[in-house]
Amino acid sequence: MKATSPGVAREPFGKRCGSTLLDGRRSQFALAKTGDARALDIATDQSRGLRKRLLHVECQASGRKYAYAGIDSSPQDYPAPRLLKSNAAVTDPLARLRTRLNPFSEEEQGHLINWGWYVMDLAMRSYGVSDEVAPQAWPLPDWPP
């Protein structure tokens, strides 16, 4: 299995599986940006999309299973059973959360960790390892998404 992040080169995640994970960090275009900064945002977003399409083609050609989960994914898009429920009022703003290098609050970290774990679990159980049991508790129970 390989874990893939758009900002990081692919690296081995486990040798026993012929699967690939892909998370979909997305940049948000800022309307106030002009000129070079806006062009860079557009080029970055397009290269992330291209990387995702190339991975899709590679996995299909090699017969590997793969799963995709993005921060703006909807749990309803995945057919795997869900025992945990998320709150769109909490999760929708996470897709627009700043990506600057300043520290996140404990609450932001907790929600991000739980949400990323949740959508990747749904993606993996939907398209990768379908015989796994749905989780019944959050990794960080104080911050349910």
Brief digest:
With 145 residues, the chain is α/β, with parallel strands linked by helices. The protein has two domains: 1-70, no CATH class; 74-145, no CATH class. It is built from three helices and four strands; from the N terminus they run E-E-E-H-E-H-H.
Give the SSE layout.
Blueprint: E1 2-5, E2 8-12, E3 19-24, H1 35-62, E4 65-70, H2 88-94, H3 106-127
Parallel strand pairs: 1-3, 3-4
Antiparallel strand pairs: 1-2
How does this model look, in words?
The chain is an alpha/beta fold. The protein has two domains: 1-70, no CATH class; 74-145, no CATH class. 39% of the residues lie in helices and 14% in strands. The protein contains three helices and four strands. It is flat and about 50 Å long.
Describe the global form.
flat
Number of helices: 3
Rg, Cα atoms, Å: 16 Å
Element-level helix/strand string: EEEHEHH
Q: Please, what is the average pLDDT? A: 78
Structural class: alpha/beta
